[in-house]
């Protein structure tokens, strides 16, 4: 069976990856989203959620049985050891689900959207990488508005990701996501044509 042509899409927190991947969806391209998979594998009652509860305690679980993301985020950003343990639990499960979803994709090429594409070495699965880029000040402002968190926490998340300079240096393509939506749609359409060509000739 022919392997899918995979385009990785990444960017720092608040860069607007979803805005970009939604444009590819509109063009009929399937998107495998690592964030959505990371949420689904810790659904109430899931084996992984039980493992997290056993490792980090009942305070990580809300009264309705859901993972308390805010509590977990606060813990891993204050305790490097806890972060390492959480990654060891979650990453193999997420990777298995990602690989299965990529295998199932039927579109001409497939988008793998992951905020930590480089950090988790998911770029090794991709034939090409598109980076969605905005200035750091914009990342902070957008994430604060979206998640209702303070600037220090956003800055800590940005510091935990690879630098903007390195991310851009490792990109095959870059989208400036400060552009108006009409210009963004046009840029995505041009990239779409390019990726269709690459996928056909692989």
Automatic annotation (TrEMBL):
Alphabetical list of Pfam families matching this protein: CoaE
Binding-site residues for ATP, renumbered to this chain: 14-19
Places the protein is found: Cytoplasm
Catalytic activity: 3'-dephospho-CoA + ATP = ADP + CoA + H(+)
Keyword Transferase: yes
Main subcellular location of this protein, as a coarse class: cytoplasm
Task of the protein: Catalyzes the phosphorylation of the 3'-hydroxyl group of dephosphocoenzyme A to form coenzyme A.
HAMAP family reported for this sequence: Dephospho_CoA_kinase
Protein name: Dephospho-CoA kinase
Natural source organism: Aliidiomarina sanyensis
Lineage, broadest ranks: Bacteria, Pseudomonadati, Pseudomonadota, Gammaproteobacteria, Alteromonadales
